[in-house]
Amino acid sequence: MVHKVFREIEETNFMLMQSQQEHEATLEKSKDELRRVKTQLESQLKEMDLKLVLFENQIDTEELKIRALSESRSNNFRMGGLTGSEGEQSDAKDIRQQSSSNEDRNISTSSSSKQGQTSQLKCNEFDSLQLGIDDGKQNMAAKASAKSNALFMFMKDVYTKMNIDSSSSTCMRMLFGMESKLLQLTRKFEQAESDQVKSALKKQDTERRDKLRGEKNRIKKEIKERNMKESLRRAKEPVHKKVGRPQIFRLQPIVNRKKQVEEEEDKIDEDAEFFVE
């Protein structure tokens, strides 16, 4: 009866120890899973921050280009206004000269022809300048469009990697979508339930322990197979037979050693001489 009780207690203790080990394994796995998820999300957030900084820099450069184009356009309009005012002043001068005297008509005609030539030259210079400005605008517009297309393709690639709908038509909308996705991920990470995290860590711990157990079993199996092969090899080897008589080692012979009693004999002789006298 007592043995039965002790056996039941031992079985319960063994089961409790096994359950404790399993719980510890699951806890370690869940902790590892939590660390892995945390590091993965942190790396993704850092990558997204770097990409956002890159996009902001590209947007700043594009805005600077747009400002430069607008300033050049305003300067061109101002130059056109100045040439028009000069033409009006020259026309007013011609009218005054014609009304002042009819005698100087030839002189006025010659001066008007010269002014017409100068105005024509100015118009030609302005046209050439306008053509150069238009060419520069076209080159800048082509470069800006190429950069914007490259930025759009880069953003589209990022969207595909993040599994976001890339139906937005502009880069700004895509940037806003990325920002909203990042905020959503951070909120999910912050609001993750502890039970889910614990279950994930537990699962990871059990997987790790199963892996270690399988590795140990594999090593034991390999050792057992190696020992079996060695025993089979020794069994197949021929039996080594000893030839001849076995060598017997003899004991040393007994030696009786005489005791030296010289001192006792001298004493006996002295006593005998004393009594004889």
UniProtKB/TrEMBL annotation:
InterPro entries: CFAP_domain-containing. Residues 75-121, 200-243 are annotated as: Disordered. It comes from the Eukaryota. Residues 108-120 have a biased composition (Low complexity). Transmembrane segments: none annotated. Keywords: Coiled coil. Residues 20-58 form a coiled coil. This is Uncharacterized protein. It comes from Streblomastix strix. The lineage of its organism: Eukaryota, Metamonada, Preaxostyla, Oxymonadida, Streblomastigidae.
